[in-house]
Amino acid sequence: MSLLVVGSVAFDAIETPFGKTDKIIGGAATYISLSSSYFTKKVNLVAVVGEDFPASDIQLLESHGVNTEGLQIKKGEKSFFWSGRYHNDMNTRDTLVTELNVLGTFDPIVPEAYQNCDYLMLGNLSPKVQSTVIGRLKKRPKLVVMDTMNFWMDIAMADLNETLTMVDVLSINDEEARQLSKEYSLVKAAKKIMEMGPKYLIIKKGEHGALLFHKNQVFFAPALPLEEVFDPTGAGDTFAGGFIGYLASTNDISFDNMKRAIIYGSAMASFCVEKFGTERIVNLSEKELRARVKQFVDLVQFEVTI
Amino acid sequence: MSLLVVGSVAFDAIETPFGKTDKIIGGAATYISLSSSYFTKKVNLVAVVGEDFPASDIQLLESHGVNTEGLQIKKGEKSFFWSGRYHNDMNTRDTLVTELNVLGTFDPIVPEAYQNCDYLMLGNLSPKVQSTVIGRLKKRPKLVVMDTMNFWMDIAMADLNETLTMVDVLSINDEEARQLSKEYSLVKAAKKIMEMGPKYLIIKKGEHGALLFHKNQVFFAPALPLEEVFDPTGAGDTFAGGFIGYLASTNDISFDNMKRAIIYGSAMASFCVEKFGTERIVNLSEKELRARVKQFVDLVQFEVTI
After folding, report:
1. Which residues of chain A are within 8 Å of residue B218 when distances are taken between CB atoms?
2. Where are the domains of chain B?
3. What is the pTM for the complete model shown?
4. The domain A3-300: what is its CATH number?
């Protein structure tokens, strides 16, 4: 089924203990689109870049089957740019530069050909832009997933509260879940957040895996224990892309299928962190992906007679 | 099969954000023995207490089928005492008091009736005492599991190195694994530690679950997401008790059975943290335990066609 992805397409410059990059392609929608493209070829992108954005990077997306009709290119303007430096433990980072540029005035225009999409993934953006997209769809998608971050909780909580009532699945990290709910226990946090709108909540815990909550059900997927995390940038978005891509390809939003989607998302994220930026996820084979999912099966599956 | 448990039996005084206790029964061997008693009734305890230790607490152990013939009671001396205060996040704590008392001169005498034990669990103690126990067994047990802590890495590394060569399974937490291996990545840490002696390594990550390593195999069990962690004291020992108790009761040390043992240990630990000290694990029903293991199945199991 068709998938609409909205979010940032941008430049990142990344420093980790393993090295640093020049400006490379980044942005939530980039990672989401690339990751979901391994599951469905009907990925429609809505985003904005400046004149400085290389045609080769747009071609990269298109070569993965991503429809870039909805990618606005603003003449005379510059693309969103983020630069960050990771600490030794890779769990914390300092933002060195944030230049909003074209993202500051982003009007998410949905091309006519994108209408009637079945699945909608709202990457991290201002909650106002996210709700605008939902408002512009003539038919509500079967499933709306949104990602957000603490930044919007700090400066746009009213907008965020409204957008939360419009989505089915919210994806945030553990600290954001605590901030949003004012609860330390993630179980309590999940209950409160699901009362704010989303019927499903994904709490990402980085190297400690991810939790999926729905009513009284809970599912946990670990992160794959890796010898080395090279660069965590985009891991959460790659996870989200695998999650929604798998759901769109199977067109099954049962809780059991969401479990599988979480595993596929986790598998995609485990690739992402192995190299800088998108490097590892632009050239995956189906065989590699299958082998990685098998690793997750071996990692957590056990047989017990109760 | 018979299980020999060696470790501290002690008094604890605990403060958490939920309240505080007077001196209550604690100690690694207490938690290990109680927890393993839900799986096997052949639990033989070697430990030492002072004259101040109440007969009622010894009866508590005996009522769970724990053989206390090897529990030395030192006339005119006092039991080991530990007091600690947990911070709000329950992941960190301050030690307020440590009084070694009888533990300072503990000579682990193994009663004749304990010889030929099939499984040996060495709770956290000085590595010298741990290796002494192994040396005093006429027949090597089928499986030797040891727990230790950063304290011994700081002050008795040579002894610890020697004891590590004598055991099959080492159980430590993530920070201890990093300290012992000088590696941040737990995968790299596990490889190094398994070269130091143990064929199996359990890395406990508290609320983030536990990892079991063996050669190139790895298994992960999450901690159960709980509304509230009331008191984490003894959770690691309760986990170890469930692990070795399950192995002893099934007498199967295949990797697949160790996975199940990790799940049973995790289930026992999830009970332990629900109340102060041993309160929750002294009165569990088989039905409760079965239901808890079922929660772990629901939490992590998924079906996928690869």
Report:
1. 225, 298-299
2. 3-300
3. 0.96
4. 3.40.1190.20
